[in-house]
């Protein structure tokens, strides 16, 4: 597995969706994940340290885990099937570890709130051609994307 960091969040006007850009620590691998507007907002709030007067869904999940003394130990982006990404949230509670199925956007939003590491499986990374992704990213112009205000 490769540990990934959220490097940015962009708007894709062609698909009317947002893209979370994950990059490995060695800056060799890039994993773009398309997400919806609410999920992008949740990720953006966490990245920018924005707190709302009332807990948003991911804040609520964090509060529930904290009150039960459970801890998110990692988030793993596991697979891509039919243009849909899959993820798992690994939680430790007492002496047991639990794996919870999740959308990657929700897993990433939670990981950012609890400061848990984000990983991608090597099998998933192999599904992407780094050269194609890098070429795609290199050809992007700022005007290709709209501005996102959380």
Model description:
This protein is an alpha+beta fold and 150 residues long. The protein has one domain: Bifunctional nuclease domain (Roll). The protein has 5 helices and 7 strands. The protein has a 7-stranded mixed sheet with strand order 3-2-1-7-4-5-6, sandwiched between helices. A hairpin with a 2-residue loop joins strand 5 (84-93) and strand 6. Helix 2 crosses helix 3. The longest helix is centred in the N-terminal third of the chain and has 12 residues, at 37-48. The model has no long low-confidence stretch (mean pLDDT 87).
Helix-residue proportion: 25-40%
What share of residues are in beta strands? Answer: 35-45%
CATH topology value: Bifunctional nuclease domain
Annotation field: number of helices: 5
Shape, per Cα inertia axes: globular
Element-level helix/strand string: EEEHHEEEHEHH
Count of the domains: 1
Class, according to the CATH hierarchy?
A: Alpha Beta
- Our measurement of the CA-to-CA distance between the termini, rounded to an integer number of angstroms, reads 31 Å
Task: Tell me briefly what this model is.
The protein is of the alpha+beta class and 150 residues long. The chain is 33% helix and 38% strand. Helix 1 packs parallel to helix 3 (104-114) and helix 2 packs across helix 3.
Tag the structure with descriptive keywords.
single chain; about 150 residues; alpha+beta; Bifunctional nuclease domain; 7-stranded mixed β-sheet; 5 helices; 7 strands; about 35% helix; about 40% strand; globular
């Amino acid at each position: 597995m490769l540990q990934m960091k959220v490097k940015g969040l962009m708007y894709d006007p062609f698909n009317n969706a947002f893209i979370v850009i994950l990059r490995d620590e060695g800056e060799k691998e890039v994993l773009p994940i398309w997400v919806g507007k609410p999920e992008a907002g949740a990720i953006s709030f966490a990245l920018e340290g924005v707190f709302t007067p009332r807990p948003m869904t991911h804040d609520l999940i964090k509060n529930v885990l904290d009150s039960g003394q459970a801890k998110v130990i990692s988030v793993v982006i596991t697979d891509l099937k039919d243009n849909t990404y899959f993820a798992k949230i690994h939680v430790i509670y007492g002496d047991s570890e639990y794996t919870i199925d999740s959308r990657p956007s929700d897993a990433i939003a939670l990981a950012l709130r609890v400061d848990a590491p984000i990983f991608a499986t090597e099998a998933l990374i192999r599904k992407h051609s780094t050269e194609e992704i890098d070429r795609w990213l290199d050809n992007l112009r700022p005007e290709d994307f709209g501005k996102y205000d959380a």
